[in-house]
Amino acid sequence: MKRIFAILLLQIVSLLSIAQVGNDQNISLNGYVKYLNHVTFNKFESPWIIENNIHNRLNFSWYVNQNLTFTAQMRNRIVYGDYVKTIPDYADMIAADNGYLNFLTNNLYSNNSVVINTSFDRLFFEYNIENITATIGRQRINWGQSFVWNPNDIFNAYSFFDFDYEERPGSDAIRLQYYPTYTSTAEAAVKIDKDNQLTAAAMYRFNAKGYDIQLLSGVLDSTDFVLGGGWTGSIRNVGFTGELSYFHPQQNFPDSLGVMLTTVGFSYIFSNSLAINVEAIYNGYFSKLKLAGFTDLFFVPMSVKTISFSEFTWFAQASYPIHPLLNASVAVMYFPSLGNGYFVMPTFTYSAGQNTEVSILGQRFAGEFGSEAESLNMLFLRFRLSF
User: pLDDT tens, 156-200?
Assistant: First the structure.
């Protein structure tokens, strides 16, 4: 039934997209096709694990009238390679969907060589009237202010290392936004997941002395009360951002201890277009993660409390346009809790045409888990064609 529903929904979106020919003002459709090849190895001379991903994205919007919009966005992926062949239940991992509407993600076909997966990560109605916006369905609720880690992003936590999923996951939620002034917003949202766990919160954002400041409170996954806040501003010409969130268990509230996550970041762009980002995070949940190695990063359930895996983590990134068509960047993280562990990711992106892009990336993790030293290396080659 899940496959049938996914196919029918895809056909409906396709038929509505055809209407674009005769009604350009009310329908929009865009997307891209990507091919990603990556290899994984511990040491250069060790066996290489090779994986391939053909990824198509469709972004569809139907402007029903001046107040109502329907949006459907989907990922279609063909995954094949050594992971599919060697990791048990890998197809089930790809099909995993933590949302209440988990039937929106399906493997249309899978065997021990290939997995064909489709997922609607956006499927919602949005209604606007004057200074009020109401949204219902699978949507992105982004309350983050910082660049790398977002303790305030309790609805849609994501991993910095998953660079190939720029759109980030969505939540099955109801959201209400009210704009009292041009510089202030009041929001309330309720999300439910596949286990019927509830995340509900309210947030107020306002501007004071050149800073966008937000305050929030609510409940995370039916287990924790959360209080938080964040800011975005500048000190002279240096961008200054930060977030903090405090999570306290509901069960045995008076006798239990909560955890704090805090980030602070700075950014600056020089006159020659060199861009620098520096950020740090403290994760009070670190001691409860119990990671056995870097490969666990890709299998630990994603939560706002698992966005980092060292008690303190330091980050720096530099990006520079070597040529109008070629951009280079390097990102570095330092993990003191992992025996002075580190992460390095160099990236080169070349614009091969108006809608064509080629990227070469690398990722290296190194550190200690217990008394064991571990490293993980990955190389990526990506082609992207947008339409």
Answer: 899 999 999 999 999 999 999 999 999 999 999 999 999 999 999
Give dist(CA 231, CA 211) in Å, integer.
Answer: 7
pTM: 0.88
Q: For the chain, which residues make up each domain, given as ranges?
A: 185-387
- Spell out where the chain has E strands: 27-41, 49-63, 68-81, 105-110, 114-129, 132-139, 171-181, 184-192, 198-208, 211-220, 224-235, 238-249, 259-269, 275-283, 312-323, 326-335, 341-353, 356-369, 372-386
Q: What is the 3-state secondary structure (H, E, C) of 252-276?
A: CHHHCCCEEEEEEEEEEECCCCCEE
Pairwise CA distance, residues 259 & 246, whole Å? 6
d(CA 94, CA 142): 23
Which residues have CB under 8 Å from 324's CB, separation 6+?
none
- Please give the Cα distance from 65 to 23 (Å, whole number): 13
Q: Does domain 185-387 have CATH number 2.40.160.10?
A: yes
Neighbours of 228 (CB within 10 A): 25
Residues 189-198: tens digit of each pLDDT: 999 999 999 9
